[in-house]
Model the fold of this input.
Amino acid sequence: MKRRTMVKGFAAAAAVPAVGVALGSPASAATGSASSDSLVFDPAGYTELTTTITDTDGVAHEVVYHFYKAITYVAKPVDATYQSLNVSVPVKIDGTAVDATHAPILLANQVGGYMPSSTASATGIGGAMGPAGTISRQQLALAAGYVVVEPGARGRTLVDSSGTYYGTAPAAIVDLKAAVRYVKSNKGRIPGNVHRIVSAGVSAGGALSSLLGASGDSPIYDSYLKEIGAAEGSDAIFATGAWCPITDLEHADMAYEWNWGANALSSGSLVDRTISKELRTAYGDYLASLKLHAKGFGKLTVRNLDEYLVKTHLEPSATKYLAALSDADRATYLAANTFITWSGGRATFAWADFLTHVGARKKDAPSFDLFDLSSGENNLFGTGTTKARHFTLYSLRHESGSSARLDSDIPGKLDLMNTMHHLAGDANQNRSKHWWIRLGTKDSDTSLSVASNLGARLENLGDDVNTSYYWDAGHGADEDPGDFITWIGKVSGYRK
Ligand code: DHB
Done:
């Protein structure tokens, strides 16, 4: 209710032109340009806070930081609760003054499940903590002397009093881009190096992080950005971290059956064999169309993708895990998991045995575009007062017959939401060139090939890609948050 009033209120300011040029100039203040003034970062608008952050070695650090809270990052917010960000700037670490003027900026989105995310009521950094048992990567970044920006974003479930969904696709990515533009357009006012923005997110947030990285400055978002009064200028980011990205949604059902089709549900029953097989078959054509190549494998197809995953990601993951165990613990693990051969300090196994080891698949078939429209992704592609829609021909036609056609706006919405779209063909030149991709080997929220295809495509494009799969880890795992912080320092050139 509150937000609807705001939309109307801000609609009046819609006529105020572009923000970029007038930013912060006395002239803009004199003309009372509310929308441009509202996008000027106020360096003095902070609260000084002190927190203790324990690093990944278990060492506690006292960090004094400036906390800028709930800054609305667009001039015409639809819902400022979500279209706001927090900024944390370290000024003293363990009693020593630090200057974060040129530090990299970690842009940590808080999106999960493509739901709305808000940092507006946070009382300090890391208002939303990382997955259970992990140390918030935002806090580690702060303790490393980096600037941390935590943006909120609209999400799929938001609905106004007239029943209109206002956070469905592409709202979340548009908001994150607007947040980036806000930061970049405030160069010189906002602390940190705006040319070294590193995005991070998990799951749906990982998908959006990868999309942000791949789609820098893409014109397909322009009209949406204009509509919410985003700052003018670039939304390209320097580097991208993505944990278990749930992207490539229109091919996720196919990919899922290729990966997990033989695995039973937790109930013990197999999914519908016909549906599983049809989707699995369709994945072959899609994979071939990606024209991915990998060293030692040539073109990736459904004939070698399993072996590629095993050799490139899964065996190295198991090897790393087992090598870190004590001899006794390793022996115990291997005795309980005889499908693994441990020889010469390396783990080897077969794909089929790995699938058995993972066990129950999390989702039924189809896993994303559900026939009854009940998935989060169906809601993500809702529009207007329609809560949920089909976004694949397969599911649509299963329900509505073989001549049914997707709503005409769906293909465009899919492109707006799909990281792979921006990497196809010549690929977007303004994408991030540094990538950190992570995934648990027991994560069946989507196919394991979603993250690996993304990594393979980026490698084929010549980007710097750091991929690692966490052995036996489930959805949302982050087992090397400290390494990510070190990586940021290296790729940004800030450290060593
Ligand atoms: C998330 C998990 C899912 O299984 C999915 O389909 C979309 C998002 C998540 O955890 O963000």
